[in-house]
């Protein structure tokens, strides 16, 4: 009995230690800015003309980004990348949007790439607002011609912005419903909903979004469950469309198949300028 009691105490201590680790190390589990500080290439390396931009946030950070213009562009994509890497790792997306005839503004959140500061949930929302202002005020692009495109974590940031502004539409690629929902999947044995210091509740934002929504997700996604994409689609308002991808979280990209690209193009073109 004494040995059993001792083992129980040790197990309880280990459990508490793991819970404490999860609580205090959340930021390093959510963000991977260190994996993408170095810019490995620029649009010029892929034959794309671009402007290097510095965007000031309301709290004094400086965001680095690229604006890739297209002659006689029919729309402009504001791109929100995922939690790892930086803008130089999304070159294939830039090529796709350029080929489809859309300008693109892609930027790094604070603490990523060449942007200043350290990432935080509230900080990424301020970053989104700053990028939006750059497009609609500095570049004077009508909001009804701006497409918000978010991949993974960036989808939550894009959805947050879509609630507060009036974009033409919102595109979510391989996006989770919320951080607590993701944590519950990874650590089902811990009270993660009580421990979580992050929300990024994409599904809650979608319930109050008023613009058209395009959701793309793969049943083979090995990081964000396919059920998250389905739930987001169900929560989104009409008009909306769901695109079933193939492949894992890091290789089921929309630009990898022409029929996927065509589905996205049709939805974007049908809804540009439709928001009053």
From TrEMBL:
Top-rank taxon, per record: Bacteria
Domain AB hydrolase-1 intervals: 76-179
Pfam families listed in its UniProt record: Abhydrolase_1
InterPro entries referenced in this protein's UniProt entry, alphabetically: AB_hydrolase_1, AB_hydrolase_fold
Protein name: AB hydrolase-1 domain-containing protein
Record lineage: Bacteria, Pseudomonadati, Pseudomonadota, Betaproteobacteria, Nitrosomonadales
């Amino acid at each position: 009995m004494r040995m059993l009691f001792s083992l129980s105490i040790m197990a309880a201590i280990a459990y508490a230690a793991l819970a404490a680790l999860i609580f205090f190390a959340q930021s390093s589990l959510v963000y991977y800015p260190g994996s993408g500080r170095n810019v490995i290439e620029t649009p010029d390396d892929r034959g794309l003309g671009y402007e290097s931009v510095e965007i000031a946030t309301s709290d004094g950070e400086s965001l680095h980004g690229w604006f890739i213009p297209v002659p006689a562009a029919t729309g402009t994509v504001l791109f929100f990348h995922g939690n790892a890497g930086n803008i130089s790792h999304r070159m294939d997306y830039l090529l796709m949007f350029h080929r489809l005839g859309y300008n693109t503004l892609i930027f790094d959140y604070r603490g990523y790439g060449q942007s200043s500061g350290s990432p935080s949930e509230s900080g990424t929302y301020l970053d989104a607002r700053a990028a939006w202002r750059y497009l609609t005020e500095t570049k004077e692009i009508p909001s009804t011609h701006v497409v918000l495109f978010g991949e993974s974590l960036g989808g939550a940031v894009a959805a947050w912005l879509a609630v507060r502004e009036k974009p033409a539409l919102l595109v979510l690629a391989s996006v989770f419903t919320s951080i607590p929902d993701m944590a519950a999947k990874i650590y089902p044995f811990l009270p993660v909903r009580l421990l979580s210091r992050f929300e990024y509740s994409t599904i809650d934002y979608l319930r109050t979004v008023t613009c058209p929504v395009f959701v793309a997700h793969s049943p083979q996604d090995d990081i964000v469950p396919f059920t998250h994409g389905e739930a987001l689609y169900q929560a989104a308002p009409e008009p909306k469309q769901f695109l079933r991808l193939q492949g894992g979280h890091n290789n089921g990209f929309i630009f990898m198949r022409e029929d996927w690209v065509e589905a996205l193009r049709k939805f974007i073109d049908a809804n540009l300028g439709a928001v009053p």
